[in-house]
UniProtKB/TrEMBL annotation:
Single GO MF descriptor: core promoter sequence-specific DNA binding
GO BP annotation list: regulation of DNA-templated transcription
This protein's name: HTH-type transcriptional regulator/antitoxin HigA
Organism encoding this protein: Marinoscillum furvescens DSM 4134
InterPro entries, per the entry: Antitox_HigA, Lambda_DNA-bd_dom_sf
Length: 122
C-alpha cells in the first residue's frame, strides 16, 4: 500500500482508478484500509477543487420538503394561507423572520442558509 497526497489532476485520477479496483475489498484487509484512506484523500481533493455551492433558500426548502415527503399544504397553517406559501415557493415573496424561524425548526435547515439573499420574480 503506497498512499500519497493528491496534488494534481493526474494524482486524482490515479487515486480514483485505484479506489475503483479495491472498492469491494473485504473489511479488515489492507485493501479495505487503503480504500478508506483513499476515499478521504479523494473527498478532500474534490472539496478543494470542485466545490459545490449551497442552494439558495427557496431551493433548499423545496429539496428538504421533498426529502420529508411534505406538500405545500403541510406548511400552510404556519404561513398564513395557501397563496402565501405558493408565493414564497415561486419566489414572488421573500421569506419573513417568522417563516425562517418556523422552517429552521420544521425542516431542520440552518438559519444562515435561509437568510441568504435570492432573487424575487416579478
Amino acid at each position: 500500500m503506497t498512499i500519497r497526497p493528491i496534488k494534481s489532476e493526474n494524482d486524482y485520477q490515479q487515486a480514483l482508478d485505484r479506489l475503483d479496483e479495491i472498492f469491494d475489498a473485504k473489511a479488515g484487509t489492507p485493501e479495505s484500509d487503503e480504500a478508506d484512506i483513499l476515499g478521504l484523500l479523494i473527498d478532500e481533493y474534490e472539496k478543494k477543487h470542485f466545490p459545490i455551492d449551497a442552494p439558495d433558500p427557496i431551493e433548499a426548502i423545496k429539496i428538504r420538503m421533498e426529502e420529508l415527503h411534505l406538500k405545500q399544504v403541510d406548511i400552510v397553517k404556519e404561513f398564513g394561507g395557501k397563496s402565501r406559501v405558493s408565493e414564497m415557493l415561486s419566489r414572488k415573496r421573500k421569506l419573513t423572520l417568522d417563516m425562517i424561524r418556523y422552517l429552521t425548526k420544521r425542516l431542520n435547515l440552518s438559519a444562515s442558509l435561509l437568510i441568504r439573499d435570492y432573487q424575487i420574480v416579478k
